[in-house]
Specification:
Strand content: under 5%
Structural class: mainly alpha
Number of strands: 2
Number of helices: 9
Length: 268
């Protein structure tokens, strides 16, 4: 009998301990609600309802309101993190999971936050690695593209210089021919003066040599031939077209399509 009484006494004591501890448990679980203003509590409920309806933008507005009113209310921070995940704002979600964890949520929520933070951190590291690799590839592609453009520029300038040299050569040779014609005309006049039968004298009896009419005719014909040669040379020189230089700096900055493929386009 005494054993039965002792067992009943211990059971009653345990029941009384549970009853006494129940308010403390409820205070831990629902303590945030007990201290949260009614307006914030209403917004939290509306946020949860909007989340269940997949209205994540409305849920975000509600949870952010609660966050601004009660920054340490971890359920709102947790739900806000979940909402950011649904909206694809993973950076914001990571920040909210971390903020929630700092407020010491319940065990299950804390475990979920830790798992989410680990996953997002790993994803961020992977993304940063991909972005770094992509940036390096872009930089290498741009360097190769610029090298191609620089090579094209040098070949273009060499070609332009060659074309200009051809022009100058045509005009130089024409000038030599014209000078020879004019020089030959002067020699012809001098030869006539020395060996011709022209003995023209002025009123004073001074010897004038070749008459002006003959002299002018010889020079006029020579100048006409020389001018014709120079004109023809100029036409031929102008026929050699000098291409206009493109904007090399703009071409270097363009990197069209080449950057997306990871290598520069080769110019023809």
């Amino acid at each position: 009998m005494r054993s039965i009484k002792q067992q009943r006494s211990r059971t009653a004591g345990s029941a009384r301990a549970v009853v006494k501890a129940l308010p403390l448990v409820l205070a831990i679980v629902f303590g945030a609600f007990l201290t949260m203003p009614c307006a914030a509590e209403d917004y939290y409920k509306m946020g949860c309802e909007a989340y269940e309806k997949n209205d994540f933008r409305q849920a975000k507005r509600c949870f952010e309101y609660v966050k601004n009113q009660q920054p340490k209310y971890w359920p709102a921070r947790y739900q806000l993190a979940n909402t950011f995940m649904k909206l694809g704002a993973k950076e914001d979600a990571l920040a909210e999971y971390q903020a929630c964890l700092e407020q010491m949520p319940d065990f299950k929520t804390a475990q979920y936050c830790k798992a989410a933070i680990a996953g997002l951190s790993k994803e961020n590291a992977s993304r940063q690695m991909r972005e770094s690799l992509s940036a390096r590839r872009d930089s290498e592609a741009k360097s190769r593209h610029e090298a191609v453009i620089e090579d094209q520029k040098q070949r273009f300038e060499a070609n332009v210089q060659e074309l200009r040299s051809k022009r100058e050569q045509i005009m130089s040779e024409a000038k030599k021919q014209a000078d020879v014609i004019l020089s030959d005309a002067q020699k012809q006049i001098k030869d006539l003066e020395e060996n011709g039968n022209y003995w023209v004298r002025d009123q004073t009896g001074k010897h004038l040599g070749v008459p002006y009419r003959v002299r002018n005719q010889i020079l006029s014909e020579a100048r006409e031939r020389a001018d014709r040669i120079m004109h023809d040379a100029e036409v031929r020189a102008q026929g050699i077209k000098i291409p206009e230089a493109p904007d090399w700096e703009a071409l270097k900055e363009s990197v069209p399509a080449a950057r997306r493929r990871g290598y520069p386009q080769q110019g023809r």
